[in-house]
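ok trying this again, last paste got cut off
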Amino acid sequence: MRIKVTSVFVDDQEKALRFYTEVLGFVKKRDLPAGGARWLTVVSPEGPDDLELLLEPNWNPAVQINGRPAAAVFQRTLYEAGIPCTVFYVENLQKECERLKKRGVTFAVEPVKTEGGYQAVIDDTCGNLIMLFQEEVSG
């Protein structure tokens, strides 16, 4: 068993595609019609392209909580609690943060030393916080 696709809920697929490709530097892999939305995935140019990140719409009306799409409620709850929805590993956190700041990325948490490495948290402009993490090298 292996992970092939994982997803992040987004409030706007087109805006998400621009952020994840033009700002973060991922590459679009798939863009297929999917029931009023798109099966829209990106991959990292630094990793195997068989691991895809699905930019999944948060507005599915079929699954609701108190009359609102459940994914949107879940996403908003995480965001308001300051909880990142996923983690992206980077080789050099300081360098990556400098690159992203030049591209106008908003940081919810500036780079800090943590157990096992360094982390920062960014806002993806699509309703999510994303943690960037650099592992501490032992030795």
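PB: full thing came through this time. The domain at 5-135 is CATH 3.10.180.10 (2,3-Dihydroxybiphenyl 1,2-Dioxygenase; domain 1).
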